């Protein structure tokens, strides 16, 4: 796996902190496993990354909507995926069921209805 390292350019101080960071190096890490390459597609991964960035502004660059604690970030990610999979009907899934609003969890067989935000909030501790 290629891991890019971003930071300030050489010789440039923090006065450019509102500009996008530059790639200052790379780190190559071995990844083990036996994935089914016929099912692998960067399009799915990139689409999910975009959905996550647009749904949670914490993951966009140069924003003030960051999490000060890692626990708060974990809670935000959990709520995002709970809403995305259980409470949000998806158009392609809805079309496949002849117009019946269908969330991802319903298509996977782990839910029998589209959840409301009140149902999700009731799960919070």
Describe what you observe in this structure.
This protein is α+β, with helices and mostly antiparallel strands and 125 residues long. Helix content is 40%, strand content 10%. The chain contains five helices and two strands; from the N terminus they run E-E-H-H-H-H-H. It has helices at 42-55, 70-87, 91-96, 104-108, 117-123; strands at residues 2-7, 22-28. It has a two-stranded antiparallel ribbon with strand order 1-2. The model has no long low-confidence stretch (mean pLDDT 85).
Task: Indicate the topology.
Layout: E1 2-7, E2 22-28, H1 42-55, H2 70-87, H3 91-96, H4 104-108, H5 117-123
Antiparallel strand pairs: 1-2
Keywords:
two-stranded antiparallel sheet, 5 helices, 2 strands, 125 residues, alpha+beta
How big is the Rg?
A: 19 Å
Judged by helices, strands and strand pairing, the structural class is alpha+beta
Strand count: 2
What helical percentage do the residues reach? 40-55%
What spatial order of strands do you see in the largest sheet? 1-2
Coarse morphology:
extended
Helices, by number, come to 5
The biggest sheet amounts to:
2 strands, antiparallel
* Strand composition percent: 5-15%
Instruction: Summarize the helix and strand pattern as letters.
Output: EEHHHHH
Mean of residue pLDDT values: 85
Termini gap: 37 Å
The residue ranges in which pLDDT falls below 50 over 5 or more consecutive positions are none
């Amino acid at each position: 796996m290629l891991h890019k390292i971003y930071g300030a350019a050489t010789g440039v101080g923090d006065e450019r902190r509102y500009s996008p960071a530059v790639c200052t190096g790379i780190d190559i890490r071995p990844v083990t496993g036996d994935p089914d390459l016929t099912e692998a597609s960067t399009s799915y991964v990139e689409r999910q990354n975009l959905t996550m960035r647009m749904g949670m502004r914490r993951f966009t660059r140069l924003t003030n909507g960051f999490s000060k604690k890692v626990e708060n970030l974990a809670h935000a990610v959990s709520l995002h995926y709970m809403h995305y999979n259980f409470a949000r009907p998806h158009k392609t899934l809805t079309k496949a069921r002849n117009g019946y609003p269908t969330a991802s969890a319903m298509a996977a067989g782990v839910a029998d209805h589209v959840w409301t935000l009140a149902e999700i909030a009731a799960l919070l501790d």
